[in-house]
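We were asked to recover a plausible sequence for a given structure. The inputs and outputs are reproduced exactly as logged, with field labels preserved.

PROBLEM: sequence recovery
POSITIONS: 490
GIVEN STRUCTURE:
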């Protein structure tokens, strides 16, 4: 669980509270910097984000009067909150390389090409990813392990990588949302004062509808995307793999170890770290890799020469050092989000969004917008759950709604939308791990769009909306337009 207490609107001294106009200035500036830097000058995101940090720091220091120490503290707190994410990024990059060196991912590709066909690949990928993610409680673990293998299998079957990535993410986030082992699921329940299993049950109907529609779309997409596989292509890929790796059941030991620990309830970081050791030792024991070579692959990545360019590209990885590019973007985005949070700008934006609600339907929509906005501004899915969850929960109380309505809303929109934002830690991790840019896989990540959409339909129709005992379902709040922000009242 992430220990994070945001500054809430009612807790900020009115003399220090920024106005809505002032809070929007860094947001507009960030959009301009990213657009100009990436689109016009074709730069990587790091320095456009750095421009945003510099501008925002100078703006809040000299226009709003915050001290440098306050800004440093905001950056430090935000990075500290995201440090576990950063560590997981590094460990997953090392894990992928050791699993390639061990023959684990090549083995999954080898057998997957025998068992799967282009027509069923996309829907089956989504379903398998959902099952694994539910079992281990982590969309990131699923994408960083089986997801990498699915990308290879899909390429061998002629399925474009962005489509495969979309199916992986749809399944991974579906299972993550329904798993009691998931940190975001536990966090959404905790910050809204909702029982964990009541929160999971509240999400089930909407999740099943969104995922069911996604699977249907993958069936249609698979039928249209799968053409005739060139004769001998699968055999050539399998021969290239078998010529460079020993493909035996022993190469799957790292999977059994890693997923076994995850199912047992061991947290993600030690579980994935153990997976790195299991991959390194398997590469030594099964592939005959030397000790130094095994750990060099974990550090610097893999560059196999199988004799087939397609396979070489699929099994090339960056290792621990390869994660630095992604991590620098994550740290820059977290730093910018930390300044916005410490100065109260996030609280002001969430508060004014909350004032737009005039009934259950608009309140549900505002919650979804707030979660997505926090994902964009703070670049971290934990903030997208915590800030709306704590800022809006008393407004749900005023409408006579049970807290599980709020917990469902922040997770259905916050957790799932993180992977759609290129500079968010979720989008960065998925793009870097799967080797597909966020903007490329986004059109095929159906669940990421359908989950918030189904949530909004719930608010509009009243389906699955739960009221407190004795409430009649009147959608007029007791204090029209107010957004109390004191935590702990339910």
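RECOVERED SEQUENCE:
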């Amino acid at each position: 669980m992430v220990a994070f207490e945001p500054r809430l609107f009612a807790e900020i001294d009115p003399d220090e509270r920024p106005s809505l106009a002032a809070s929007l200035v860094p947001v507009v500036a960030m959009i301009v910097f990213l657009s100009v830097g990436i689109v016009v000058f074709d730069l990587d995101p790091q320095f456009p984000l750095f421009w945003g940090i510099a501008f925002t720091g100078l703006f809040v220091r000299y226009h709003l009067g915050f001290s440098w120490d306050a800004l440093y503290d905001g950056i430090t707190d935000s990075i500290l909150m995201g440090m576990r994410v950063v560590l997981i990024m590094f460990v997953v990059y090392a894990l992928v390389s050791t699993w390639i060196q061990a023959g684990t991912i090549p083995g999954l590709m080898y057998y997957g090409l025998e068992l799967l066909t282009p027509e069923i690949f996309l829907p089956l990928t989504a379903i398998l990813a959902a099952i694994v993610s539910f079992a281990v409680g982590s969309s990131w673990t699923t994408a960083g392990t089986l997801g990498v293998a699915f990308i290879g299998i899909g390429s061998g079957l002629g399925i474009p990588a962005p489509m495969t990535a979309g199916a992986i993410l749809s399944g991974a986030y579906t299972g993550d949302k329904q798993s009691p082992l998931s940190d975001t699921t536990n966090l959404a329940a905790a910050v809204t004062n909702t029982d964990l299993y009541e929160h999971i049950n509240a999400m089930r109907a909407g999740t099943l509808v969104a995922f069911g529609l996604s699977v249907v779309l993958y069936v249609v997409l698979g039928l249209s995307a799968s053409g005739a596989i060139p004769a001998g292509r699968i055999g050539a890929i399998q021969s290239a793999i078998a010529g460079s790796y020993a493909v035996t059941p022993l190469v799957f030991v790292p999977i059994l170890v890693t997923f076994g620990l995850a199912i047992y309830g061991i947290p993600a970081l030690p579980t994935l770290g153990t997976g790195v050791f299991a991959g390194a030792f398997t590469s030594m024991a099964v592939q005959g890799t030397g000790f130094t070579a095994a750990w060099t692959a974990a550090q610097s990545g893999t560059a196999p020469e199988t004799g087939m360019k397609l396979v070489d590209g699929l099994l090339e990885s960056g290792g621990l050092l390869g994660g630095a590019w992604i991590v620098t973007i994550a740290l820059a985005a977290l730093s910018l989000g930390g300044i916005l949070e410490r100065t109260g700008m996030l609280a002001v934006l969430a508060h004014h969004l909350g004032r737009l609600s005039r009934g259950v339907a608009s309140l549900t929509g505002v919650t979804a917008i707030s979660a997505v906005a926090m994902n964009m501004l703070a670049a971290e899915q934990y903030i997208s759950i915590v800030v709306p969850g704590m800022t809006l929960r008393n407004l749900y109380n005023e409408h006579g709604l049970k807290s599980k309505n709020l917990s469902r809303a922040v997770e259905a929109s916050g957790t799932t939308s993180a992977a759609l934002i290129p500079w968010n830690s979720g989008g960065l991790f998925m793009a870097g791990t799967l080797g597909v840019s966020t903007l490329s896989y986004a059109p095929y990540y159906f669940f990421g769009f359908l989950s918030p959409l189904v949530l909004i339909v719930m608010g509009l129709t009243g389906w699955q909306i739960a009221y407190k005992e004795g409430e009649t379902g009147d959608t007029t709040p007791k204090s029209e337009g107010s957004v109390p922000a004191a935590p702990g009242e339910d």
